[in-house]
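Ticket 4471: requesting a sanity check on a complex prediction with zinc ion. Repro inputs:
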Amino acid sequence: MTSTTDVRISAAEQVLRRVFGYDAFRGFQQEVVDHVVDGGDALVLMPTGGGKSLCYQIPALVRDGVAVVVSPLIALMQDQVDALTAVGVRAGFLNSTQDLAARRTVEAAFLAGELDLLYLAPEALASRTTLHLLDRGRIGLFAIDEAHCVSQWGHDFRPDYLNLSMLHERWPGVPRIALTATATSATRTEIATRLRLTEARHFVASFDRPNIQYRIVPKREPRKQLLALLRDEHPGDAGIVYCLSRASVEKTAEFLVANGVPALPYHAGLDATTRATHQQRFLREDGLVMVATIAFGMGIDKPDVRFVAHLDLPKSVEGYYQETGRAGRDGLPSTAWLAYGLQDVVQQRKMIETSEGDLAHRRNLAAHLDAMLALCETVRCRRAQLLEYFGQPGGTACGNCDTCLNPPESWDGTVAAQKLLSTVYRLDRERNQRFGAGQCIDILLGRTTDKVTQHRHDALTVFGIGTELGEAEWRGVVRQLLAEGLLAVEGDYGTLVLTDTSAEVLGRRRTVMLRREPERPASTRSSKPR
Ligand code: ADP
Ligand code: ZN
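Returned structure tokens:
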């Protein structure tokens, strides 16, 4: 028993050294490899850059038969196969981009037992031709990469992944390993259930990425703030900038280029050739900035991404963590920077309100957004909060996030919240006129703008009762009340409305602790009209 295990371990280690050229396994790679080589099922959760590939590539070489790797990353299959071929591993792929001749060659190699790894797109497994092909060969292992694509809540959902539960029924004797960088226990349970990985051993790595500095700043003029970040801290560095919309991707890329930063756009509205070219350039050239929607990034292995910047709020902590995880795979200091503002909350809440799907679906989206907002508004260490979200001990303050480096104050905002909610209440009674945050703040600050005089809002009892705070602070109050659900938005113009819990604040049954807005830079302050 011991001796056979020893022999196997050394077989795996030999492959690690001889084929891949590494001295030692990392983290729990070796445990996963041993378990899978022995024929066990595994569910592997490791952060991006953690080294998931070896967890199935080494068993693929040690076990008899071909390892079939299911991956949604069709655009990267050629690169993956080339990288393996370069170190002498016999690998091939079958997907829709390939011509018939190439396909026939791979099929023949598979049937002749001349492949170690065969990469397939998930939709291939819905085709009877492919299933028939697989039946005629000898399969030693199934690896399901990016396994979170089976989760219907995530933004990477691929319907074809649901079909993968049949692997177990059709090939009951073949071990399966599912891998992902998405870490919450909810996703983990969902993967195990949907893929029928009931017997699988779970391997969960630490999700801490100590070299990434997390920073979340109030959004003012996001493109200028971004440019300042790139000029001050990341001149000449490669990085990714995420925007919510295609239009904003285009504008931001143009803005950066106009300001001397080499940037390329990437979103699903660009044709496939342009996307492929931009992706290749980003991977191969130094110091390019990719401005993209979340369509970009999954499976991209570029070690020296020095920053990931978000100009819009991600929809979930899972998404935020995956996207920021693309920074600093080489272990060197990197920045995860997010600009976040009132408008983000308004926009995302509205998107959920108008989204398709049933109530349960909308509630789920709202719960994910709330966790993201809580991360933005926290006065605690961001990293500790992130890790705890993923079910890991947060530990003490990390010393490498904005709240650790520059601790924000929290203050008792109960009275401010009451003033704001009273204003919303007064405006809400003017049934046919609806007003957003701007009008409320003008009223609180006692500004006699045209819109204020026109609607006689200077006659309201709340007019001018909020001069102890500035405009930025008031926007912070609105944003945080929205984030906490003490205030809500409605309709196309972001009309503020009270919620069921607003009454608790108005009735003094609830205190509201708020995060103090950092000082605005002197230049913006002095140019601001009083
Ligand atoms: P993931 O798929 O988890 O994002 P990869 O499998 O692409 O990560 O691995 C990330 C990087 O780490 C790759 O460049 C890989 O070659 C390297 N790597 C993985 N395992 C080891 C190891 N045991 N020793 C040294 N480098 C490793
Ligand atoms: Zn910290």
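Notes from triage: Confidence is low (pLDDT under 50) at residues 520-530. Leaving this open until the requester confirms.
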